[in-house]
Amino acid sequence: MSGNSTTIRLTMAQALVRHLAAQYIELDGERVRLCAGGFGIFGHGNVTCLGEALEQHRDELPLWRGQNEQSMAMAAIGYTKQRLRQRFMFATSSAGPGTTNMLTSAGIAHTNRLPLLLLCGDAFATRLPDPVLQQVEHFGDPTISVNDAFKSVTRYWDRISHPAQLIQSLPRAIDTMLDPADCGPAFLGLPQDVQGWAFDYPLAFFKEQTHRIRRQTPDEREVADAAELIRTAEQPVIIAGGGVQYSRAVDELTDLAESCGIPMVETIAGRANLVYENPLNCGPIGVTGSNSANALAKEADVIIAIGTRLQDFTTGSWSAFAKDAKIISVNAARHDAGKRRSLPVVGDAKHAIKALADRLTGYSAPANWRERAQMERQAWDVYLEENISTVSPEGTNRPMSYAQVIGAINRVCDPEDRVVAAAGGLPAEVAANWRTRAVGSVDVEFGFSCMGYEISGAWGARMGQAETTPDKETIVFIGDGSYMMLNSDIYSSVLSGKKLIVVVCDNGGFAVINKLQNNTGNVSYNNLIKDCNLGVEPFAVDFEAHARAMGANAESVNSIAELEQAFGRARASDRTYVISLKTDAFDGWTGEGHTWWEVGIPEVSDNPDVLAARKDLDEQRKQQRVGL
Predict the structure, then answer these.
(1) What is the pLDDT of residues 162-198, one digit of tens each?
(2) Is the overall model pTM greater than 0.85, yes or no?
(3) Among the three residues 381, 406, 434, which one is the final residue of a domain in this structure?
(4) Contact 225, 343 (CB under 8 A)
């Protein structure tokens, strides 16, 4: 590695890794590497050059080998969520299908505003050996490769066609991932030949740098306007989103709500902003919400949305709020703060909440509204207790349900254990039925609603948790459908010593989509295993045996009591532990708490039930805030 007193000659891949290893961030008074390492599956597009560089820095940037490129990147996402976007990990793949496998993961990170660095092989910049293995050819534009597909799901995208470009591009990628306003995945395409090309890089490029995550102070005029509007409110509600946690603003939010007596509700991403015992916690809002939160939201005259992008599951497809309700949106991203003609407060949540609190001294929501909120919360508590019970109000035994499973684990786990769920029916059931006992202890991936995130995301979350609360468990709630879609990181977790407790709820297929199908007048088709095209009699997967084959400890249970006992054995296990059980596909769903949700229903059909559902859809649309 030659050079002069101010430069060093390195390959582009070597320079990339060395620069990453020199980036730091200060967390709670401790200086740690900004990049915690990465996940990699090697192929001809990244093994010989990037692989060589990563091996040289294996201590500073540990590399974990996954079983699937998509799941590796999901693990990186689970890690950064657990670390509240303050650290990130990378994922690397070869050119071709290894790269395209990570498109879905990029979509998760983009939708959820999460940092993820993707380092993907690419075709040769010289084009001398074209067409090469795994190269798709665009006849009219030879500059296009499969990597261009990532432009729609990344915040920053570049193809490094010369080693010198790295000097500008890599710092910009890092800046993007750390910016609360633009946070999201960054993609660098690495042509195979360019990875190995050498350049005299300035030594300053590898000087250690300590980063800080920007806290943007909101405009005083926006804060003043928001405070003035809140002071007029007779029935205000705070909607707390995931951005509250990323800003580490939970204490400020709680102080604001308590000093002003404003009821708070949570989005799915904002679950675990508040502990269950907080009397101002009026439950989750929206399609997967609670009667209490949705009743308050429907009657609120001023809605204070903090750190949420207000997606349709939060807003009930914009039917959850009164049409004349005023919305204040506090967000680091201008794009989110100005949605639906909200009164925007653009800035860091921690600073914005404190600024609002200073201007709201002496204001308190009317006593009758506070009392109403408590009545709604208490009524929901009663329903929730009944919903997680194995015995119906009439005294009969209920079929085993998601809610019962969630309630059981909630009772026996440690308050600071981390819960991970994603897609299917479990996000709604966790959102509605989980009683949060520690702030930041719930990760429900429902922004991109990606099946398969559960185990892989939990593997990454476990790595993050090991840095902060290593004595706590990472618990996965997963349905049989998601399990069958992506389960190989059970093996990864065992190999890496990152223990998970995985609860597999087997209801015979994609039961929640079957429920949606039936609720919109359609007959069951292609969702439950028994309703698919089959060449044999339908049969259940032996999830216990499958998990054992990947090195995990596992058992099957047949009751909630057995589940609670099995959880004790899982906690005592020295490795990943899988608990499998059957749950009801038809009658076990949480029936209360949901707002309307708009889905497409045929306008013309031979099925009268479909036509009736369409008529109901048209009627419900009248509740939407169109253009507001």
Answers:
(1) 999 999 999 999 999 999 999 999 999 999 999 999 9
(2) yes
(3) 381
(4) yes
Q: Are 31 and 173 within one domain? A: yes
388 assigned to some structural domain: no
- List Cα–Cα distances, 236 to 232, 244, 294, 307, 624, in angstroms: 9, 18, 13, 17, 20
Looking at 381, 412, 447, which one is the last position of a domain? 381
Residue 424 in tokens: 């299917």
Would you state the pLDDT for residue 628? 59
Sheet containing strand 577-582, edge to edge, reads 442-445, 418-422, 474-479, 501-506, 577-582, 553-556
Does residue 589 belong to any structural domain of this protein? no
For residue 445, what is the domain's CATH number?
Answer: 3.40.50.970
Q: How far is CA 566 from the centre of its chain?
A: 28
Asked if 461 and 418 count as a contact pair (C-beta separation under 8 A), the reply is yes
Q: What are phi and psi of 86, to 5 degrees?
A: -85, -20
Same-domain status, 315 and 441:
no
- The domain total for the chain is 4
Neighbours of 261 (CB within 10 A): 16
Instruction: Give DSSP secondary structure letters for 295-339.
Output: HHHHH-SEEEEES----HHHHTTTTSS-TT-EEEEEESSHHHHTG
Q: What pLDDT score was predicted for residue 36?
A: 98
CB–CB of 479/425 below 8 Å?
A: yes
Calculate mean pLDDT across residues 116-132.
94
Give the pLDDT of residue 3. Answer: 61
| Token pair 């929206």: residue | 286
More confidently predicted of 352 and 95: 352
Give the residue numbers spanning the domain of 25: 7-211
pLDDT at 472 > cutoff 70: yes
pLDDT bin (cut points 50, 70, 90) of residue 433 is very high
In a domain, 566, yes or no: yes
Residues 275 and 166 in one domain: no
| Alpha helix (H) residue ranges in 413-488 | 426-433, 453-468, 480-485
Spell out the residues 6+ positions from residue 298 whose beta carbon is closer than 8 angstroms to its own. Answer: 320, 321, 322
Whether residues 541 and 496 fall in one domain: yes
| Same domain (yes/no): 230, 187 | no
Mean of per-residue pLDDT scores for the chain: 95
For residue 206, give the nearest of 356, 403, 393, 6 by alpha carbon. 6
Query: Considering only CA atoms, which of 308, 322, 318 is closest in space to residue 340?
Result: 318
